[in-house]
Each structure stands twice: as structure tokens, then as C-alpha cells.
Recover the amino acids of this structure.
């Protein structure tokens, strides 16, 4: 099929990751008592961005010649 | 708001809704992006055999990883511990490898568009009709059951209206399947796979960190195993390793493991009959491999799927084990409790409205509840309800009763209770979206299997042969709409007639149990005849029903759980230590009868198919596939052996 699935996966996780990361930056530390004091939004948001970017990179890099 | 102290619903922040909406927009967007590639009926129903192996591989695994599987595996992890992993390491990996190496060449090479169509090529129309009809009905019911669970969940958890939740979620599925067909479903399954992994991994990590690592979890589970009565998990004590060893408690016998299963039933019943019957013949999963772009990709599909499948217990079973561990250590976590009956809620509301003293309220409620109350907490809850300015709402009463009475454990609520405990807004949205995604892609998977079987195996075969391809493409889309509407009807049916649904699922269990015998003989013994296969399959199904009617698991009442024939003829049903053992043995009997009868009848009847007819369909009459163009380390047989070795190593580590 013409659509490379890595493209939407990469886009979606980059977007959601960025959202979580920014949300983690602006929310107070008191909110993270339930997650054992870890700002999971900040950290996991970053993981999602890295994953999404890796997907995007592999979808968009030029095809290697055989 | 003091009167909300006991209320337990989840409040989503805007960020959570944003994540949910973003996911929904992406899946619909994928459907629309694929629309322009949907030209023929084959594009729509079989993806035009064009998808790379890693995508079909993840979809293959993901199609089975529905929400009910997620919820159910965590529940079993809590009830039985690490032995639940047998459903993966014994009950899936060997069958997936067998499918890749031995069976995929026939499915893919025969150019059949569905599993029933293969049966028609190999045997005759009768076998195809039997298989396609039962399969079509089964997929509709399966997707209905799953959508009912989803709508109920959204209703209880977020307070959405049941009907709105059901129709909106089904509408989203309809939209993207109608636009992008099977490819849409496969792509969303891949998306769902990553959602589940990335949505649940932080929850598992936080749970593990909270308890202090796997070592501490083991200690806690040893405490659980020696006294499961404390958490109401089991009525008797086990050896300390019953929750933390996969094989030792099984080897000790059915009385010494919480599953109540013997080793033969586990290895032969689950590991061979049920597992091969599901993974190697169920069109829902096999369809993913058939959509691959060439033979190598088709054979690699189950092998690629086996890698995440092997590791999945970390995400789906470990949470259940963590939950009982946390509960045993008093880490501020209690096992979720079953929802109280509506009558008990009404009784509580009436009694507190009349300002009765706590002891009288308790009396009124326990009569309807079927459970006792915890005196001091219950009295506090009654005092709070009677002091509230207005009567408590139904969900507030329900949550209060769950906390102050001895209702049975709600194992299916385990995974959600952990999400609620550890996830702040943001992560909460991600985890809930993952759960929602698996419900919706479960429906999409079933509907795409349904529309293919309907269009090619029922409509084209029996109602309207020799029409133009555009006619079948139209029918495929029509079947998609019809499939979704039927699923919604089944969801309502499941909601109103819970017991009838148990019967429906029971009957499907009867049909599935003997199925692998038919495929095994069909693919590996050229002498098997259509009559033998058809009658053998019918007899196997009948055997399931008779076996079920003559046996009963200890503690169950005669009825939908078995024993009805024994009751009719006035004998004691044969007792099994657990329902699981009863099911495994049922499969073993049904398989054996189907196998022996198919062999017997085949020998007694004439083979109507010539050797030429069976070329490409039967092992001995098909030229061996030459993998020489592929380097030795990438050949399916080699990869399969490596995967099997990894699986054995996992079993040894957790022996």
C-alpha cells in the first residue's frame, strides 16, 4: 500500500510526546505524588518524542540503493 | 465536597481528552489516506497482498491482543501468578512457529483468499460452509462482546452515556474500515501495539518500583501463596512458590497449583490442541499473514509476531502479580471489588433516606448484596450518607459499598485500578487511550475478517457467483456496515442477556476444540477425504458438547458450566478440579475423536480429488520451498528454532 505506516506512527507519537513533555513542564510537583514523586509526563513525553522521531527518520530517509 | 469521599470515578483533564482525540483523528486520517488505494475488492478485503512483514507481524500479534485479553491476562496474573505465562510460552509460541514453517506455504501458496476457501480447495463445499458460517457468526459476537465491555467501561469510569459511547466508538471503527479496508485495520493494529506498549510500560515500571523490584515482589507473592485466603484469592494454601514458579507447582499436581490443572492437560490440551487450533486456523489472525506481500513475508509474519508475544507477559501478566503483591504488603492498595447489585444500592439509599441506624442499614443491604459488611467502616459510610445535604448518587453508593463490605474481588478491574493509582493526568490519558485503542481495533479486526468471509465464502460462493469485481467490492463495503450494525446488536444482546452470551461462547468453544485435527490431516495426509473431514468435524463438535454435559468443575452448579447430560440421565458428573482443567480436557477429547473419525471415514470413503487437484494444498504433493535465495540465518526454519530456544530459556528462568 502506498502509505508508509511509519509516517503516521512517528507523527502521532512525536505530537503526543511533545504535549506530555510541555504538560510536565507546566504542572506542579504536587501532582506527581501518585507516580512516586516522578514527573512521569516530562520523562515519558521525552521517550515518546524520541520514539516518534526515530520512526519519522526511518520513514523519511532516502531509500538506500541496492 | 465531603460527600464525594467514597466516589471513585476518574476525572480526565483536558490533556487526557486531547490525547484521546489525537489518537482518534490519526486512525480516521489513516483510513482517508488509504482510500485512494482501494480500487478492487482484493484491495479492500485482502490488502492486495502488499504489506511488509514487520507490519503484518505486529498486526498478527496485535489482532489477538484485544482489550479483553489485556484485562483477562492481568486478572489471571493476580489469580494464578506466573503460570499464566503458559498461555504465551506454551499456548502460543510453538503454534506460531509451526504456522510459519509448515502451514503458511499452503495458505499463501494456494492463493486462497480466506481460511474457509482453503478448506473448499482441499476438501469440498460442505467443510467450507460449516467453517465460514460458524466463523462469521463468531466474529460478530466477539466484536459485540468487546464493544459492550468498552461502552460499560466508559460509562462506569468516565460517566459517559452507554448508548453514546457504543455508537460513537463503533462509528469511528466504521469510518476507518470503510475507507481503508483490511489495510486500515492492519495499520491501526500496529498503532495500537505501540500505544499499548508505550501506554502501559510506565504503569508497570511504577508498580515495580513501588514494591521495590522483582525480588521484593517474589517475597510478597510467597506470602500470598501461603495464605491466599487473606486476599480472598483461593480457599486453600499452597507452597510458597505457587505464584512465582511456572512449572514446579504444575508438576506437583492439580491440587498444588492455583489453576487446578495437571501437566498433561496443560501441555497437550493448551499447548497443542487449543493453541494450534487457534493460531493456525483462526482466520482473524491468519488473514494478517495472508495480506503479506510475498511468500517470505507471509512466513515471516508469525515469526516476527512471536518476538513481542514472548515478552508480552511483562506488560499484561506482571500487573496482576504486582496488584496482589501490593495488596499483600499493605502498600496503600486494595484489590478492586465487584460492583454491588442495583437492588443493594437502592436498599442503601432507602435505608439511609429513612435515617436508620447503621446496624439496620447493614441488615437491609446485606440481604441484597450477598456479602457481609465491615462494621466500623460501614457505619462511618452510613453516617456520612445520612449527614449529606442530598442523597448519594448511585455511583457514589456503589463505590462506598465496594470499600466497606466484603464483596468478591473484581479481577477484571485489576489493570484499571493500577492505572488509576499511578497515573497523573497526561499519562492517564495515554494509558486509557491505549485501552480504548485495543477495544476499537478488536472490533476492526473482527469486522474485516467477517466482511471477507461473508463476501467471498458465503455471498460469492452460494448467493451470487460470476458477478463483476466492482460488485464484490461494493458487497465488501456493505458487509462492513452490516457487520458493525450486527456487532452493535450483539453488544445490546450481551448487555441484557449475560447468561445467554455465556451459552453462545460455550457453543463456539465446542466448534473450535476439534478444528485443528481437520487441518492437520488435511495438510499432511493426502488420503483425507471431504466426507471424512466434514463428518469428523461434526462428531468432534458433538463430542465437545457431550463431554461438557457429563463433566463439572468442583464448586460449579449444573447448567451453563456443564453437567447437564449427567443430570438428565441421573448420574454424578465427572468432577474436575477447576474449569480450566475441564476445558483443556474437553479440547483433548474433541480433538482425538475428530482425528480418529476423520481417519476412519477417510479410509472407508473414496478420495474424489486427484493428485493434481491437491498439489499446493497437501505437504507430500507440494514441491518443497527452496529458501536458497535467502541467507541461512534468515530462513524461517532457522529463525523458528532460535525463537523456540529463547522460549525454552524463558521457561527455565521462571521454572
Amino acid at each position: 500500500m502506498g502509505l508508509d505506516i511509519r509516517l503516521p506512527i512517528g507523527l502521532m507519537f512525536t505530537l503526543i510526546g511533545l504535549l506530555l513533555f510541555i504538560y510536565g513542564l507546566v504542572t506542579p510537583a504536587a501532582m506527581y505524588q501518585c507516580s512516586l514523586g516522578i514527573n512521569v509526563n516530562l520523562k515519558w513525553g521525552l521517550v515518546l518524542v524520541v520514539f516518534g522521531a526515530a520512526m519519522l527518520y526511518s520513514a523519511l530517509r532516502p531509500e538506500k540503493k541496492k | 465536597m465531603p460527600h464525594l469521599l467514597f466516589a471513585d470515578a476518574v476525572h480526565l483533564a483536558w490533556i487526557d481528552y486531547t490525547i484521546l482525540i489525537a489518537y482518534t483523528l490519526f486512525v480516521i486520517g489513516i483510513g482517508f489516506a488509504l482510500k485512494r488505494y482501494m480500487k478492487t475488492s482484493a484491495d479492500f478485503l485482502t490488502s492486495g497482498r502488499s504489506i511488509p512483514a514487520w507490519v503484518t507481524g505486529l498486526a498478527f500479534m496485535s489482532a489477538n491482543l484485544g482489550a479483553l485479553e489485556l484485562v483477562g491476562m492481568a486478572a489471571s496474573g493476580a489469580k494464578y501468578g506466573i503460570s499464566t505465562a503458559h498461555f504465551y510460552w506454551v499456548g502460543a509460541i510453538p503454534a506460531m512457529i509451526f504456522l510459519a514453517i509448515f502451514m503458511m506455504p499452503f495458505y499463501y501458496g494456494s492463493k486462497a483468499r480466506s481460511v474457509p476457501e482453503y478448506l473448499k480447495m482441499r476438501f469440498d463445499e460442505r467443510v467450507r460452509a460449516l467453517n465460514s458460517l460458524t466463523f462469521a457468526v463468531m466474529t460478530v459476537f466477539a466484536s459485540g462482546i468487546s464493544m459492550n465491555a468498552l461502552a460499560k467501561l466508559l460509562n462506569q469510569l468516565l460517566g459517559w452515556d452507554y448508548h453514546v459511547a457504543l455508537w460513537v466508538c463503533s462509528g469511528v471503527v466504521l469510518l476507518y474500515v470503510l475507507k481503508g479496508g483490511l489495510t486500515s485495520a492492519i495499520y491501526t493494529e500496529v498503532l495500537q501495539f505501540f500505544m499499548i506498549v508505550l501506554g502501559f510500560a510506565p504503569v508497570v515500571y511504577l508498580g515495580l518500583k513501588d514494591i521495590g523490584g522483582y525480588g521484593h515482589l517474589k517475597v510478597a507473592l510467597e506470602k500470598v501463596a501461603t495464605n491466599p485466603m487473606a486476599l480472598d484469592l483461593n480457599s486453600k494454601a499452597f507452597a510458597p512458590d505457587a505464584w512465582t514458579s511456572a512449572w514446579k507447582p504444575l508438576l506437583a499436581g492439580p491440587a498444588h497449583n492455583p489453576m487446578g490443572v495437571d501437566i498433561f492437560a496443560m501441555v497437550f490440551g493448551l499447548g497443542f490442541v487449543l493453541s494450534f487450533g487457534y493460531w493456525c486456523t483462526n482466520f482473524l489472525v491468519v488473514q494478517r499473514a495472508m495480506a503479506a506481500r510475498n511468500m517470505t513475508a507471509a512466513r515471516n509474519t508469525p515469526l516476527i509476531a512471536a518476538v513481542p508475544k514472548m515478552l508480552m507477559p511483562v506488560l499484561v501478566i506482571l500487573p496482576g502479580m504486582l496488584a496482589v503483591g501490593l495488596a499483600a504488603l499493605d502498600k496503600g492498595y486494595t484489590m478492586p471489588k465487584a460492583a454491588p447489585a442495583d437492588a443493594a444500592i437502592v436498599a442503601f439509599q432507602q435505608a439511609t433516606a429513612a435515617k436508620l441506624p447503621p446496624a439496620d442499614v447493614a441488615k437491609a443491604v446485606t440481604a441484597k448484596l450477598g456479602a457481609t459488611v465491615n462494621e466500623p467502616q460501614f457505619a462511618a459510610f452510613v453516617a456520612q450518607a445520612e449527614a449529606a445535604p442530598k442523597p448519594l448518587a448511585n455511583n457514589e453508593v456503589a463505590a462506598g459499598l465496594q470499600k466497606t463490605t466484603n464483596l468478591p474481588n473484581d479481577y477484571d478491574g485489576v489493570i484499571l485500578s493500577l492505572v488509576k493509582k499511578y497515573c497523573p493526568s497526561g499519562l492517564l490519558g495515554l494509558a486509557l487511550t491505549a485501552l480504548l485503542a485495543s477495544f476499537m481495533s478488536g472490533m476492526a479486526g473482527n469486522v474485516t475478517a467477517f466482511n471477507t468471509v461473508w463476501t467471498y465464502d458465503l455471498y460469492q460462493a452460494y448467493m451470487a457467483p460470476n458477478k463483476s469485481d466492482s460488485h464484490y467490492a461494493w458487497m465488501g463495503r456493505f458487509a462492513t456496515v452490516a457487520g458493525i450494525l450486527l456487532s452493535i446488536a450483539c453488544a445490546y444482546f450481551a448487555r441484557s442477556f449475560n447468561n445467554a452470551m455465556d451459552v453462545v461462547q460455550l457453543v463456539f468453544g465446542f466448534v473450535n476444540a476439534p478444528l485443528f485435527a481437520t487441518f492437520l490431516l488435511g495438510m499432511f495426509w493426502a488420503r483425507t477425504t471431504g466426507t471424512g473431514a466434514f463428518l469428523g468435524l461434526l462428531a468432534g463438535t458433538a463430542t465437545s458438547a457431550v463431554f461438557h454435559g457429563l463433566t463439572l468443575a468442583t464448586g460449579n452448579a449444573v447448567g451453563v458450566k456443564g453437567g447437564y447430560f449427567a443430570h438428565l440421565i441421573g448420574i454424578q458428573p465427572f468432577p474436575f478440579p477447576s474449569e480450566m482443567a475441564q476445558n483443556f480436557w474437553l479440547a483433548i477429547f474433541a480433538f482425538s475423536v475428530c482425528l480418529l473419525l476423520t481417519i476412519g471415514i477417510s479410509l472407508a470413503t473414496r478420495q474424489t480429488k486427484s493428485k493434481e487437484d491437491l498439489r499446493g494444498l497437501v505437504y507430500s504433493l507440494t514441491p518443497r520451498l527452496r529458501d536458497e535465495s535467502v541467507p541461512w540465518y534468515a530462513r524461517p526454519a532457522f529463525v523458528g528454532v532460535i525463537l523456540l530456544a529463547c522460549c525454552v530459556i524463558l521457561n527455565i528462568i521462571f521454572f
